[in-house]
Each structure stands twice: as structure tokens, then as C-alpha cells.
Specification:
10 helices, 302 residues, seven-stranded mixed sheet
């Protein structure tokens, strides 16, 4: 089994702004994975946490196990979508946008998947120092908004794009444009994304989301209430289906009885973070072919 390349002295990591949030996510996910009754099996994440020289507790505070479990269950919900995709497309392509120090590949790898990890150059360099090399994992040093990464994706064997903990940090117009380009470039593919509700987005923009230790969450200018997901249809005509994903069940009353059913509870469903899967159709070219080339010039015309 592959292990993180963090043996010996700890690796010092210094990040700020949005890139620093990858450490917050790793901290909470790994603290949950360390528990004997963990809801997420993530030994690579635990190794990473132990091998990084960073004042996690002093910066973020003592890990709240409710938040830690929430982070882990979010990751597991994404994991299950990828596993379902790989069941149908064993040698398909997963594109992980803004992956940070997520260790998802090692949790879901089926031995055949091709994995593109798209992130900012400094994060790709950090992943290269901390995580093992894998022949089927291809790092791409680029912003998710830089469409050149799309040229490296072969959709022929199926493709799923994930945007976990990313889109909320983008401007709304950029989010719509990214979704539209994915719908256009990856026919019959899908995009799995998460979003914070509008009220939470507004609080971050005002700098009001902070810990007692003084850590202030970066602004999250894009927020989407779960009931608004239907609006994503308008971003591109090749979007054929949009589903609200329930959080997988966890441990304890809240994560077994409330969180997995939050989308059904009127007072809660629009105040919670949401996970959405956007599915794409075959595209205009395939549709024209299926219709026998309707609208095209007849043979011999012109």
C-alpha cells in the first residue's frame, strides 16, 4: 500500500488565503479518520497530518469532532459518486478540481482509473513533495478556470469532474462559465460539486466566519441554496439532469437522523451546505447524428 512521503523530519508548510483552507480540511478529515469508530477510512490523510509541520491546533483551534465528521462525510459522499462512476466506467477519467491535499485517489482506486489532479502550481508542487507518485495520477498545474486542462481529458471512456470545496471561492460568473464549459466539453459526463448556502456566503464576505483563535475563513462569493440548483440548467443546454445528493449517514444522532435527511426538512434544507451532481447529455453533434443529420445539407446539395 502506498504511503505519504512524510517519513523523517516533518515538512514545513506555509500557506495563506484560499490555499490555506486545504490544511483546515485535511486537519478535520484526518482527525476524524484517526478515531477507532471513524466514518472515513483515510490512512493516507492521517499520515499527511502527522508529517506536516504546521500549527494546526493553534491556528484552527482544537478539532471540533462534529465539524470533523462533517468533513469526512462530505468526502465519503464524493467517494461514493466516484465509485458508482467507476462501476460503469472502470477505465474512465476522474478530474479532481482544486484537490488540495485530498487523498481520494487512494480511497477509490480500482487499478484502472485515470486521475487528473488540477490545482494551482504551488499546490501541485506541495502534493508532489508529500504524496507518492502514481503512474495513473496526472498533476496539472493550472487554475480550474484555465480551460487548457480540458485538453488533457479524453472523454471517450467516460469522465466525471469533481469540485469539492472549490466553487464557493470563485465569482458567480466564473462558476457558471466553468459548469457550461464542462457540459460542452464532456458529453455524457457529470460534475459533482458542493456549495454553501447564500446566508453563509454572505457571512464569509463580511469576514464574520472565524475561530476563537483568530482564523478568519476566506470570502466565499458564490453561494447557492439547495432549492436553487434547478437554475444550473440555464448554464448550458447539454445539462440534462441535476440531483441533490444526501449526505451519507454517519455516527451519532445528528449524522444518522438529521443530516442525511436534511433535504426533506423545510427549516433546514436551504440553510445547509449541499452536494449536487450535474449530468450532461450526449451533446449537439451526437443528437444530430441520432436524428439522421436533421438540419444538415442533403447528400449532393450545393
Amino acid at each position: 500500500m502506498a504511503t505519504a512521503t512524510t517519513n523523517g523530519p516533518k515538512t514545513r508548510v506555509a500557506l495563506d488565503g484560499v490555499p490555506e483552507t486545504l490544511l483546515w480540511t485535511l486537519y478535520h478529515r484526518a482527525m476524524e479518520a484517526r478515531r477507532p469508530d471513524a466514518v472515513l477510512d483515510d490512512p493516507m490523510g492521517v499520515e499527511l497530518l502527522d508529517g506536516i509541520d504546521y500549527p494546526f491546533e493553534r491556528r484552527f483551534g482544537k478539532a471540533d469532532m462534529g465539524s470533523a465528521q462533517g468533513q469526512a462525510l462530505r468526502a465519503r459522499t464524493f467517494d461514493e459518486q466516484i465509485r458508482a462512476f467507476l462501476h460503469e466506467h472502470p477505465d474512465g477519467t476522474v478530474v479532481a478540481l482544486g484537490e488540495g491535499l485530498e487523498t481520494q485517489f487512494w480511497r477509490v482506486d480500482n487499478g484502472l482509473v485515470t486521475w487528473l489532479s488540477v490545482d494551482l502550481p504551488e499546490i501541485v508542487e506541495l502534493r508532489g513533495r508529500l504524496l507518492p507518485d502514481e503512474a495513473r495520477v496526472h498533476p496539472v498545474a493550472a487554475s480550474a478556470l484555465d480551460e487548457t486542462w480540458m485538453d488533457q481529458v479524453d472523454p471517450a471512456r467516460g469522465v466525471i469532474v469533481t469540485a469539492q470545496g472549490l466553487l464557493m471561492y470563485l465569482q458567480p460568473s466564473d462558476v457558471r462559465a466553468l459548469i457550461a464549459r464542462c457540459a460542452e466539453r464532456f458529453p455524457n459526463g457529470s460534475l459533482v460539486l458542493d456549495a454553501v448556502p447564500r446566508w453563509f456566503s454572505a457571512q464569509t464576505v463580511k469576514g464574520r466566519v472565524k475561530t476563537r483563535e483568530g482564523y478568519v475563513a476566506p470570502p466565499m462569493p458564490w453561494g447557492m441554496d439547495a432549492s436553487e440548483r434547478w437554475k444550473l440548467h440555464g448554464t448550458h443546454p447539454n445539462i440534462v439532469e441535476i440531483d441533490d445528493l444526501a449526505l451519507v449517514p454517519g455516527r451519532g444522532f445528528f449524522y444518522t437522523k438529521i443530516a442525511p435527511h436534511a433535504h426533506l426538512i423545510p427549516l433546514v434544507r436551504n440553510r445547509r451546505p449541499s452536494i449536487t451532481v450535474v449530468r450532461f447529455g450526449p451533446g449537439a453533434d451526437a443528437a444530430d447524428a441520432a436524428d439522421g443529420g436533421a438540419g444538415a445539407s442533403p447528400p449532393g446539395a450545393g
